């Protein structure tokens, strides 16, 4: 493709963009948040139409009109934001539009068995007849992947498929990709995880500010070259945790946390000024711990003390009252008001404490704070009045995070805080989190990116199947040790899990 | 709202059997509210559980039930249809025009009426998809237009199906030999069965749930959302036409001014039956149970001679209790 | 301004606000008024709210029609108090007001063309009692518990029964909003809970037809039904013997009286305080008599 | 549905000025439909644009307008309130009980009525939050209960405010010296203004939009969603009470059976005014314009002597046209 231009009201998303994908290769597409990657992919799959420019497929000029047309052209896409029907089952989602059927009726048995085969082939941990709305974000991501792979596509576009995945699942996905690539098929792979580009891609195309910058052969390029081209400057990656003295006060102490569905006897201790990493594989129960702590889900038993005083947190408002904040891993469903603007979103959590007088909202103050966040997190938006749904995925994530940074929480529980955020901005966020810890705030950080956890945490608690299986200090923690505990099967009563 | 399990169609599969049984149990539990009410009234009045009273309860469910089954499609797809009530009067009037004024044979007149109902639905569907009007507005407008047109076409007076005693048999006759079990009830049963199969087992049904669940994602999956939405409204329209036939056959006349208010009752039946107004979830069986709950309550309160001004008060409280119990059960199971 | 009637050759204009519009009864009133208007060379408009509970909508209609500068107004008020201020406005502008159907509790209307609903309902009760030989159980399906006509036709019926037919047991009144289907369902419930019932009364066309329908569907053909108003369905039912008989008013005459009284008022002539438009009992026997045929509407 | 810019609160700021102006222009354009209708009727009838007719139109907007402004809160929060119509009758009856039967002074009676309205809203709010009933069901039940209670309490007959001519002055009197401009219109204006400020500028308003936008996300942001939702229903209830006072003062009596059907008109006014039924978007100004569009159309059609059976047909078509035009403009701008 060449000469692609696409504008939105107030934004020029793409200018003179070009790209080429050869048969049998995996092309990685990288760029900062808001650089225009997703927009480009949407043009390819017929969701948007370009203002200018043209696409060529096998030398023939094509113009994807709509998603169906793109499918017919052999283009299959995994969107950055999920496009799943929460009320339908996994199988129904995967084969939507291609249901096996007889003359009149659908053949659901066949549907389920086909989905079952596919799921098995991909090694997913879901059942075909599970309702998608009940799955975790990571599982939903896997369903998206299964859906895209189930088309016999020639070009597979994956927009940040691994943002919500664990290393193990990422490896499995890369396996799949390698199996998918045939001499006449190709993959465009968008990711912010630099280390996986080496593993999966053949070439890397870098874009910046909606413009084409360069294309490198993965084998010849170093990551710092890529990053420099991406952000237009050198990055320093020197942030790491400052030491926390052991004798610091314990802020939050949780013992015997159980929930109906998964958690069994979880114990946690969080010290002042500490960043506590929570590691585990998909479905280990980290998100459940976080949600249980802020009272978003009911717990069957738990003893929680806050600075030594026992407290009962029965809903997130209580938690907020105690100075506990929670950033959800699911920004779209649980984190953001998509139809509202950036400043409303950023101000939401602290309206009552920071931005009101006599019940009236002080809009100027909200907007000033929002502008500050936009600057410090480098949120790419025309103004703080832009609606959040018009931001790129990574920038939405930054807005969700900014809401909690603006609010002065004593304890911050952040679930996959850097999901979909580019390398440059990640550094900013790490720096900010570190500063918070320095100020004496305590942070529980859930992340599926082990390197990130290893780098940021003072202590790492590892979970598996709803139990805590290990605890490692920053010094002793290594990738191998964490994985060891994460894959440990607690001598669980498998019966009651079933 | 929080109950995932009233969810979309259930499948049969080795793995899925547990889900299936759970689902059935829950439907059974929704049914339980109805049973509880029936049991209560059976004790409250000896006249309640008689053959003739049961038929009359079923008969009184027919019109609301038919409208509600049609509306289920629209509501599952995430829309709403306020035009079912006055649309029904308009269709009844058109049945009169076709059969009485134009002298068409009954079967043809009925067919034309169903098609006319489909036309009403088509206009709704086009307004919702092509003009992109909110369904509430599009169908509210149709409600007003249908109310007016029914009066205009009929000249504001009922059309009587005089000579055609065959026509009233559609509702009040009985094909079951030796009984007076009204055909209308059988027609509703068959229509609901077909609707249930369509919603559960066909492409159309699948896409209806899909659109209601996430319209954008459905579109991005390459499905022509507009087309299917229009079809959904047309189906609802055909049910409006059917209700128009059933009510006019029951009364022996097309009453042009009788439909207003039925829409709220129909939607209430759908929602009591566990279909979510935000779309994506629901079932025809639930709707039928919802419609039955309403008519059993009405009948039971009348039969136990509760003073009429108290009937609505009690009706409101029982609806709250029934829906609450239903939801609470779903949450815990 | 009120007097465009004479000088400039424009036809006089009378605005008529009724209690309803869609029901047969009001359509017949409208027709009577229109025929009279044509005959007398006046222009009229006729409107009414959708149901007899919509008091505010009627007030708005009256207000709007006063805004059209009518030469006279015909009014069947749903609630006298609610229209009082507007009647005062009309008086201030010298617009004569003719009340019809039920009286307006005010001295502004020059005359009232109305049927005595209570007396009419009493007549229905009398015929019911006669048909049952003065004993038995009687149910009532009434179209409204709040509107004037509903209350009068209920009370007229019950009062007469209590006073004159001690052998008749009246069941609690049920209300069906004049909806035929709802009234039919109610009738069937009444029959189900009182299998020994002997007669049922329906207080307007929709209720009466619903009663007939309900009786028919329940298969208890020996139940005596009496009703109110006329209409093709009711006439058929009476001819076929499914209904004993009914009270009809003379809506066409009411409409005509409103127009002619209004014309007289415009010309400044004196009017009687009440114009009784009468009511008639009709049944299988007398239905074909000319004076009954005259007052039946369908 | 697709119009982003009727969105949440507008801000004033250097940067935001363009957005602000755009927002205002769009509200102006929604207003344009209204103006177009007014201009049309001015040409169609010389009696339309007279002082007395304009006051008529405004007066006839009062009750629907008041209910619609209250319902705006609920709808913006993502709920719905079907009980506003019969709830209003119940409040009117209670005003009669307080003032006529119990003989309270007018101001106290009015205050008690507003509180009673708040109570109705509170019950709705509790049913929606604690029993987790779908708002449609909770308020449908309240609609039935209120309808029944109004009849029970009043003994099915109107309560007349005879001696208290002061009471009717609340609606029909005029505080503007030398005119007969009805107080009710001024009261609606003031109430709408306060509601607008509350919805746009206060914490409550902001949370109302947030809850309507994404209830889960709002809750996880540490906001006590239940509490605020209850408050929203209570506010709507207070407006129901106010409407009860205004209508009974206008009619000089509390009519126990008059409210049914107002809920649909009120919700229609809200939706025509650009508020989305799925919550998160909308404005009080839009609602007022929506209510005006309905009453101007009603008045205009009556005043131009369109035959009544055609009035609803035209009303329906104009609503479609107005809402479509409004949305099309929003899309292009
Ligand atoms: N519908 C829209 N309306 C307005 N602006 C938009 C819209 N969609 C995208 N944009 C803008 O276009 C730019 C490119 O967005 P895009 O989603 O392509 O970024 P991206 O490279 O995928 O970023 P990320 O890594 O965060 O996913 C962004 O500045 C974004 O704000
Ligand atoms: N709403 C729900 N209904 C049913 N099961 C759920 C629900 N939410 C989570 N689960 C199940 O609970 C388990 C734990 O999920 P959780 O989200 O806590 O894991 P996690 O460690 O955060 O993993 P990840 O986020 O990577 O998937 C999963 O197996 C998931 O299927
Ligand atoms: Mg992106
Ligand atoms: Mg998680």
From TrEMBL, chain A:
CDD domains assigned to the protein according to its UniProt record, in alphabetical order: ABC_Carb_Monos_I (cd03216), ABC_Carb_Monos_II (cd03215)
Any GO molecular function: ATP binding
Entry superkingdom: Bacteria
Its membrane topology: Peripheral membrane protein
UniProt main location, coarse: membrane
Cellular component terms (Gene Ontology): plasma membrane
Domain ABC transporter: 1-234, 239-490
Pfam families (alphabetical): ABC_tran
Keywords associated with the record: ATP-binding, Cell membrane, Membrane, Nucleotide-binding, Repeat, Sugar transport, Translocase, Transport
Subcellular location(s) of the protein: Cell membrane
UniProt-recorded name of the protein: D-ribose transporter ATP-binding protein
Source taxonomy: Bacteria, Bacillati, Actinomycetota, Actinomycetes, Kitasatosporales
TrEMBL record, chains B, D:
Transmembrane intervals: 28-45, 57-75, 82-100, 106-124, 136-161, 181-199, 230-251, 284-304
GO cellular component assignments: plasma membrane
Localization terms from the record: Cell membrane
Alphabetic keyword roster: Cell membrane, Membrane, Transmembrane, Transmembrane helix
Pfam families for the chain: BPD_transp_2 (PF02653)
UniProt GO molecular function: transmembrane transporter activity
Membrane protein topology class: Multi-pass membrane protein
Protein name in UniProt: Ribose ABC transporter permease
Organism expressing this protein natively: Streptomyces oceani
């Amino acid at each position: 493709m060449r000469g692609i231009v696409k504008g939105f009201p107030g934004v020029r998303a793409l200018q003179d963009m070009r790209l080429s994908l050869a048969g049998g290769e995996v092309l990685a597409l990288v760029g900062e948040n808001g650089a225009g990657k997703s927009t480009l992919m949407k043009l390819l799959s017929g969701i948007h139409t370009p203002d200018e420019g043209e696409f060529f497929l096998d030398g023939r000029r094509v113009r994807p009109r709509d998603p169906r047309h793109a499918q017919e052209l052999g283009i299959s896409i995994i969107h950055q934001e999920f496009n799943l029907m929460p009320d339908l089952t996994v199988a129904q989602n995967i084969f939507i539009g291609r249901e096996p059927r007889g003359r009149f009726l659908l053949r659901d048995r066949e549907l389920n068995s086909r989905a079952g085969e596919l799921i098995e082939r991909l090694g997913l941990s879901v059942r075909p007849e599970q309702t998608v709305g009940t799955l975790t974000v990571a599982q939903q991501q896997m369903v998206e992947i299964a859906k895209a792979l189930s088309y016999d596509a020639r070009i597979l576009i994956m927009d940040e498929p691994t943002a919500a995945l664990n290393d193990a699942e990422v490896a499995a996905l890369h396996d799949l990709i390698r199996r998918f690539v045939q001499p006449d098929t190709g993959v465009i792979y968008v990711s912010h995880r630099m280390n996986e580009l080496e593993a999966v891609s053949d070439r890397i195309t870098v874009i910046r500010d909606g413009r084409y910058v360069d294309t490198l052969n993965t084998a010849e390029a170093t990551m710092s070259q890529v990053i420099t081209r991406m952000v237009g400057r050198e990055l320093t990656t020197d942030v790491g945790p400052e030491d926390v003295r052991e004798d610091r006060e314990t802020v939050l102490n949780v013992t015997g946390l159980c929930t109906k569905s998964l958690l069994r006897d979880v114990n946690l201790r969080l010290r002042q000024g500490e960043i506590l990493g929570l590691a585990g594989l998909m479905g280990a129960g980290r998100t459940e711990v976080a949600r249980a702590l802020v009272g978003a889900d009911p717990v069957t038993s738990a003893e929680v003390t806050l600075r030594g005083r026992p407290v009962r947190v029965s809903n997130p408002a209580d938690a907020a009252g105690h100075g506990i904040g929670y950033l959800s891993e699911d920004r779209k469903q649980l984190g953001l008001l998509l139809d509202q603007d950036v400043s409303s979103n950023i101000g939401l959590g602290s309206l009552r404490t920071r931005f009101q007088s006599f019940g009236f909202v002080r809009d100027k103050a909200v907007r000033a704070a929002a502008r500050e966040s936009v600057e410090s997190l480098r949120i790419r938006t025309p103004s703080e009045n832009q609606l959040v749904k018009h931001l790129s995925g990574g920038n939405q994530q930054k807005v969700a995070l900014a809401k909690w940074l603006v609010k002065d929480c004593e304890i911050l529980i952040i679930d996959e805080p850097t999901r979909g955020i580019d390398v440059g901005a990640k550094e900013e966020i790490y720096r900010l989190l570190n500063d918070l810890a320095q100020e004496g705030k305590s942070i529980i950080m859930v992340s599926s990116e082990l390197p990130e956890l290893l780098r940021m945490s003072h202590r790492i608690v590892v979970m598996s199947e709803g139990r805590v299986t290990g605890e490692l200090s920053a010094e002793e923690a290594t990738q191998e040790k964490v994985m060891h505990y994460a894959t440990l099967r607690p001598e669980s009563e498998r019966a009651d899990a079933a | 709202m929080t109950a995932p399990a009233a969810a979309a169609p259930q499948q049969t599969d080795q793995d899925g059997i547990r889900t299936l049984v759970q689902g059935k149990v829950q439907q059974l539990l929704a049914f339980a509210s109805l049973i509880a009410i029936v049991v209560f009234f059976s004790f409250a009045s000896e006249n309640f559980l008689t053959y003739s009273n049961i038929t009359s309860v079923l008969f009184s469910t027919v019109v609301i039930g038919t409208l509600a089954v049609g509306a289920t499609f629209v509501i599952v797809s995430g829309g709403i249809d306020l035009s079912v009530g006055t649309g029904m009067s308009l269709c009844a009037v058109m049945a009169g025009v076709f059969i009485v004024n134009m002298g068409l044979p009954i079967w043809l007149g009925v067919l034309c009426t169903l098609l006319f109902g489909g036309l009403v639905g088509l206009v709704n569907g086009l307004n919702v998809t092509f003009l992109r009007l909110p369904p509430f507005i599009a169908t509210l407008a149709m409600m007003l237009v249908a109310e007016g047109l029914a009066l205009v076409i009929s000249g504001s007076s009922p059309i009587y199906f005089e000579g055609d005693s065959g026509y009233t048999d559609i509702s009040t006759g009985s094909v079951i030999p030796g009984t007076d079990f009204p055909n209308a009830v059988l027609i509703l049963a068959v229509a609901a069965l077909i609707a249930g199969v369509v919603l559960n087992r066909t492409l159309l049904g699948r896409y209806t749930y899909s659109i209601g669940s996430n319209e954008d994602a459905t579109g991005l999956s390459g499905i022509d959302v507009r087309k299917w939405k229009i079809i959904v409204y047309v189906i609802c329209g055909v049910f409006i036409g059917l209700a128009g036939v059933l009510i006019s056959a029951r009364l022996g006349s097309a009453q042009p001014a009788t439909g207003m208010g039925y829409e709220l009752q129909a939607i209430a039946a759908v929602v009591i039956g566990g279909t979510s107004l935000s779309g994506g979830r629901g079932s025809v069986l639930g709707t039928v149970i919802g419609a039955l709950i309403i008519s059993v309550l009405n009948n039971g309160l009348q039969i136990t001679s509760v003073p009429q001004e108290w009937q609505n008060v009690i009706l409101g409280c029982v609806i709250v209790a029934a829906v609450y119990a239903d939801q609470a059960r779903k949450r815990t199971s | 301004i009120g007097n465009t009637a004479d000088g400039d050759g424009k036809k006089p204009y009378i605005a008529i606000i009724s209690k309803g519009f869609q029901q047969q009864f009001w359509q017949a009133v409208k027709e009577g008024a229109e025929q009279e208007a044509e005959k007398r060379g006046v222009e009229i408009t006729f409107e009414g709210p959708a149901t007899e509970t919509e008091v505010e909508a009627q007030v708005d209609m009256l207000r709007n029609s006063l805004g059209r500068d009518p030469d006279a107004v015909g009014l069947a008020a749903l609630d006298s108090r609610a229209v009082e201020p507007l009647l005062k406005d009309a008086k201030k502008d010298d617009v004569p007001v003719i009340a019809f159907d039920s009286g307006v509790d005010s001295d502004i209307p020059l005359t009232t063309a109305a049927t005595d609903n209570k007396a009419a309902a009493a007549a229905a009760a009398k015929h019911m009692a006669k048909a049952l030989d003065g004993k038995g159980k009687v149910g009532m399906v009434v179209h409204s518990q709040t509107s004037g006509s509903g209350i009068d036709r209920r009370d007229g019926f019950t009062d007469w029964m209590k006073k004159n037919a001690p052998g008749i047991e009246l069941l609690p009144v049920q209300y069906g909003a004049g909806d035929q289907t709802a009234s039919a369902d109610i009738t069937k419930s009444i029959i189900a809970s009182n299998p020994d019932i002997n007669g049922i009364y329906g207080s307007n066309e929709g209720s009466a037809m619903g009663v007939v329908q309900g009786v028919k569907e329940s298969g208890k053909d020996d139940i005596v039904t009496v009703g109110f108003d006329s209409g093709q369905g009711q006439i058929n039912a009476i001819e076929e013997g499914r209904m004993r008989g009914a009270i009809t008013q003379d809506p066409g005459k009411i409409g005509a009286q409103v127009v002619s009284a209004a014309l007289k008022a415009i010309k400044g002539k004196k009017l009687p305080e009440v114009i009784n438009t009468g009511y008639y009992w009709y049944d299988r026997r007398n239905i074909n008599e000319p004076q009954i045929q005259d007052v039946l509407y369908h």
